[in-house]
Design goal:
alpha/beta, D-Maltodextrin-Binding Protein, domain 2, six-stranded mixed sheet, four-stranded mixed sheet, 24 helices, 46% helix, Bact_solute-bd_prot1, Extracellular solute-binding protein, SBP, lipoprotein
């Protein structure tokens, strides 16, 4: 018995010593961590962000336009590293593999310190935020992101778009400058003014006048041989969204699919895809299609074929990007822009406009990050005027210069040697092609949307844009489950839209279409949207 007693006492001593040694080790680790954090203390303003170099691992979606450059050794990120003392190690992901590799990292793989431009959907932001894989950023943004905070104060919809029902912000967004209307419009309507002149017609201002122009140009056939295409585009959805304002639907923009503000009750939402206005719009577009005033291949046309048709000067009207930039001066200069068309009930709105929140998940910080405050400051710089200039124009004397008060790219970019294109010259030193980071501003963006023809088109459209455009609402986890279960409704609406337009389904079947949607659980979907809308209003 004595032996057993002393054996137990010996084991107890061993445990006590082990616990003491573990506590000492933990204390030493804690001390080491505090010392390391002290070495990487964040400067709340100015540059550098930290006094001692800090290394961070970023998982980044690398657009195809950047495939030939290395973000770990490129002017833009080398320069920013020198400014900030933050050395980002880039894990560059091909867009085709983005979702798979992102899910692997989140599903138990090796987490990066941050996800950059990684298109993380709101459902995942909420899920992994709730699991503490993604850090809530509310307090960090308040303290270390003055540029983003200023933008949110000016445009409250930004904060609403990135705040989840649990009250947390799990990401820093990609934004379009609110006044950069040309980019927010995306593709917009154009009309062949040379052919208008041949017909002795003015630019259409109503849906009726637009129909008369399409009909007249088909009869005139200026392209010859019956090749003239009165209206063409890459998808029929572009036409539907443009005409939505003429028929009083999609009155808060396209971000919340098929849902807008009920015009009869400003506190309620409407599923506009079952409304009379929507039916009237489909009836009008069906008439255009049946009379072959719309390209009969619009439901299947490839971009390459569309561009080939444009290069052959076949289109009398279209919805697309800047014609001169894409088709060249000779053909592109024939086109003039159209604004909103007045519909049969006197509505004349241009609702085809994106929210200023382009993407919610520009930067997402994970629980592995050794210095979230420094990372927030790193991102916040790109919401400033100087940061936008750096990202989209680069470094003065390296990629741009100032002339007569305006900054322009240097000649080796504008007129590169050895048959190199403008885009290839940009990609050798900058990474903005194919992505929006921070805030994109008209002053520093050199894409087709900032070309004179596009900017003039935006000015013409501006008077008809609604005062409020909604971003995508945020939902609880339970609400997301209901929305996912109801995805068949959206697919059915799109399928029937195309059938009604093409004539594969007769509009006499409208009542059956509405009843089918209601049987698919529309009311439950609308209850979810109504709850999200009320939170949005309160936010």
């Amino acid at each position: 018995m004595k032996f057993k007693k002393w054996k137990c006492i010996g084991w107890l001593c061993f445990v006590i010593v082990a616990l003491f040694l573990t506590a000492c080790a933990n204390e030493e680790a804690k001390s080491s961590k505090e010392e390391n954090e002290s070495e990487t203390e964040v400067n709340e303003s100015g540059m550098p962000i930290v006094n001692e170099e800090l290394e961070l691992d970023f998982f980044a979606n690398k657009p195809a336009q950047n495939e030939d450059n290395d973000w770990n050794d490129i002017l833009i990120w080398n320069h920013y590293k020198d400014m900030t003392n933050l050395n980002v190690n880039w894990e560059e992901i091909n867009p085709e593999a983005l979702e798979e590799k992102r899910n692997l990292a989140l599903g138990g793989g090796e987490l990066p310190d941050a996800f950059f431009l990684s298109q993380i959907p709101n459902t995942d932001l909420l899920r992994y935020g709730g699991q503490e894989v993604f850090l809530p950023l509310n307090d960090l943004i308040d303290k270390y992101a003055p540029n983003l905070t200023k933008l949110m104060e000016k445009d409250p919809s930004i904060r609403k778009a990135i705040t989840f029902p649990d009250g947390n912000i799990y990401s820093m967004p990609a934004l379009i400058e609110e006044d950069f209307l040309s980019l927010r419009l995306s593709a917009r309507p154009w009309i062949n003014e040379a052919w208008l002149s041949e017909l002795n017609m003015d630019i259409p201002e109503t849906t009726g006048e637009f129909y008369e122009y399409l009909k007249s140009v088909k009869e005139l056939d200026p392209a010859g041989g019956g090749k003239t295409i009165p209206y063409g585009g890459t998808t029929v959805q572009e036409l539907v969204q443009w005409l939505s304002g003429s028929f009083g639907v999609m009155n808060r923009g396209p971000s919340n699919t098929n849902v807008d503000l009920d015009p009869d009750d400003q506190d309620s939402l409407r599923f506009y895809a079952t409304s009379n206005g929507y039916k009237e719009m489909l009836t009008y577009i069906n008439k255009l299609y049946e009379e072959e005033l719309i390209d009969q291949s619009i439901f299947s046309i490839e971009w390459g074929q569309f561009l080939a048709n444009a290069s052959d000067n076949l289109y009398a009207s279209m919805i697309f990007y800047d014609p001169i930039e894409l088709f060249g001066e000779e053909i592109g200069s024939q086109y003039n822009s159209i604004a909103a068309l007045e519909g049969p009930n006197g509505r004349k709105d241009y609702n085809k406009l994106s929210s200023s929140v382009w993407e919610t998940s520009n930067l997402v910080i994970t629980s592995e990050n050794p210095n979230p405050a420094a990372t927030v400051r790193w991102m916040d710089y790109f919401y400033s005027d100087e940061g936008a200039q750096l990202y989209y124009m680069g470094v003065e004397g390296e990629t741009f210069e100032e002339k007569d008060g305006e900054i322009t790219y240097m000649d080796h970019i504008l007129n590169p040697e050895d048959d190199m294109t403008f885009e290839q010259a940009i990609a050798k030193q900058l990474t903005w092609l194919g992505s929006i980071n921070g805030i994109i501003k008209a002053d520093y963006f050199q894409g087709g949307e900032s070309a004179p023809q596009s900017m003039e088109a935006a000015e013409k459209i501006e008077p008809y844009v609604p005062e409020e455009i909604w971003p995508r609402f945020t939902f609880t986890e339970e609400e997301n489950k209901i929305l996912q279960a109801g995805e068949d409704i959206g697919k059915y609406v799109e399928e029937m839209r195309d059938k009604f337009i093409s004539g594969d389904a007769d509009l006499s079947e409208w009542d059956n279409y509405v009843e089918t949607i209601e049987r698919m659980g529309l009311q439950e979907i609308m209850d979810v949207y109504q709850s999200a809308f009320e939170r949005y209003q309160e936010g």
